[in-house]
Amino acid sequence: MMSDASTENGDILIAEEEDKLSSKTFASASLLLEDKDVRQSFMGSAGEQRNETQHHRPVGVRFLEYIRGAPFTFRTYQAIVLVLTFFAYASFHATRKTTSIVKSVLDPQTTELGFTHWSRFYFLGTVDGAQRNPGLNAGWAPFDTSDGTAMLGQIDVAFLSIYSLGMYFAGHLGDRFDLRVLLALGMAGTGIFTSLFGAGYWLNIHSFYYFLVVQMLAGLFQSTGWPSVVAVVGNWFGKKKRGLIMGIWNAHTSIGNISGSLIASALLKYGWGYSFAVPGLIIALFGLTVFLFLPVSPEKMGIENEEESQLKSPEKDGITQPLLDGRPNEKGRAVGFVEAWGIPGVAPFALCLFFSKLVAYTFLYWLPFYISHTAIDGKYLSDSTAGTLSTLFDVGGVVGGILAGHISDRLDARALTAASFMYCAIPALFFYRIYGSISLYWNVALMFVAGMFVNGPYALITTAVSADLGTHSSLKGNSRALATVTAIIDGTGSVGAAIGPLLTGYISANSWSAVFTMLMAAALVAGLLLTKLVVAEVTAKMESGGSRTGWPRRSSVPETLV
């Protein structure tokens, strides 16, 4: 009996142990299966992410990396971005500058013969009845009439009006769609419609409305350029020395103006149509290059942002705050148009740029015309010579942009720097008007100085300031505002850029001195609009003591305005 009971108890214990072992085996097998599923899910997710990254990588970059046998480094991508965006926007300005060079050919000697520009407004009337001037040596109908200068001015304002309006929409699109595709399409469209303007020469087109519509469509495509290039550069570069780096990079504006002037002037002898067709072809080719090679952001390239990694290092002193703080939130909700206007500092800088670009674009569109119609040392220069000479204004602009960026970095005072340059532009413009006609040397020197002070704040506001405001602390790390803020600031400035050349077309009929008075007044207003920001900057620096530069580094937009 005892033996049977012991045997039975032993069998029960053995069964229980077998059940426990079976349960453990089943649990282990389940865990293995779950781990396998997790690994497969993770590998599948990683594979999808790699496929998505590969999809966003430009074809040209993939091809070069395939030939190279290794992916590009972060620094290499930065170099590619700087070079491509530099030449992309330089080509935009090269096509934009062409009109000012060709003006004197389309409408020769009108101002010198003393005709008024106030008699007709061609948006509302026809041009068939315009009085032709038999004293004109040459020209192109309908611009060789007594109102030719006003007609050219109205084409300028139509171009810039569509450009400024399109800028707001382009910024909205830039924060929501692929910047590489948007920029490439804008460049291709600009090339097509710039060439179509020149095609009027070979097709013997003399319709004012043909040239008007073509320029308006060119302005629409041009509006995609600035928000796109600033947003792409902002994705790759940090805050350290932002003003200096962007000041140097912003030389593309002046380089584009200079190259556009030289190309258009050199081709005038073959026919003014070539002065449009060649720059149009160049920007279209650069647009293709952008589409094939431009990397939009580190995330889309599947590469770590080294500047963001450096920010997290305890060895850093906080100066290298990344241009786009809170990178993980890049996919967050894009900032709306009205919301972007509410960012502290956007409105005063946008209005300041309105008057700053009014001055800058008046020179862009009318300086060659002014030089060719003003006696310098008792002599009048040819159209091509005047166009070439006008490039020195843009050379001064390159120096001014770099200086403004460097000074604003050293002082960490964007508003103070911009306002100071605008105030200095007033005497520079006055002396150029009064003493620029004494001799060619005086004209060159004073033109250079005027370009430096006029284009310096223009360059600073459209680059470093836009980047600062597009990543303002009030956005709480949301990086999807840079293109919108850039578009708001530059779009508002472009409204002034449209008004300046239009007013010049009319006012210059009576007096060029009146034109310069208008420009000096605009420079004064531009500086005054930043007064509140300047006072806040200076007060903040004085209250916070001093560093080796005299002022500690703080946010470019004083916190007192937040």
From TrEMBL:
Mode of membrane association: Multi-pass membrane protein
Sorted UniProt keywords: Membrane, Sugar transport, Transmembrane, Transmembrane helix, Transport
Biological process terms in GO annotation: phosphate ion homeostasis
Recorded GO CC terms: membrane
InterPro entries to which the protein is assigned, alphabetical: MFS (IPR011701), MFS_dom (IPR020846), MFS_trans_sf (IPR036259), Sugar_P_transporter (IPR000849)
Chief location: membrane
Highest taxon of source: Eukaryota
Gene3D superfamilies (alphabetical): MFS general substrate transporter like domains
Transmembrane residue ranges: 72-92, 150-170, 182-203, 209-237, 249-268, 274-294, 341-366, 386-404, 416-435, 441-461, 482-507, 513-535
Compartmental location: Membrane
Molecular function in Gene Ontology: transmembrane transporter activity
Domain Major facilitator superfamily (MFS) profile, chain residue ranges per copy: 83-539
PROSITE patterns: MFS
Protein name: Major Facilitator Superfamily
Organism, as annotated: Musa troglodytarum
